[in-house]
Amino acid sequence: MKRSIVMLAMLFAFSTAFTSCRDQENKTDDVEEAAEDTGNDIEEAAEDTGDAIEDAAEDTGDAIEEGANEVEENTGMGGNDDI
């Protein structure tokens, strides 16, 4: 009687251990895939941010140059408006 109870308890313990291990494998794959997707999204966002910063710097440089040309034209120190 004691042996059968011990055997049933061990069978139950082994069955739950193996069942939970199979579930962990699928969860690990899902987590790895989600982490990879997140990493790709972060890289893409970083590239987009870098492009936006470059565009903003270029626009700022163009605006500064245009402003400097306006100052030269309005102060009589250069420009082609007066001709």
TrEMBL record:
Ranges of Acidic residues composition bias in the record: 30-73
Keyword hit for Transmembrane helix: no
Position of the signal peptide:
1-19
Region (Disordered), start-end ranges? 23-83
Q: Does the keyword Signal apply?
A: yes
Q: Which Gene3D superfamilies match?
A: Apolipoprotein
Which keywords does UniProt give here? Signal
Q: What protein name applies here?
A: Gas vesicle protein
**Source lineage:** Bacteria, Pseudomonadati, Bacteroidota, Flavobacteriia, Flavobacteriales
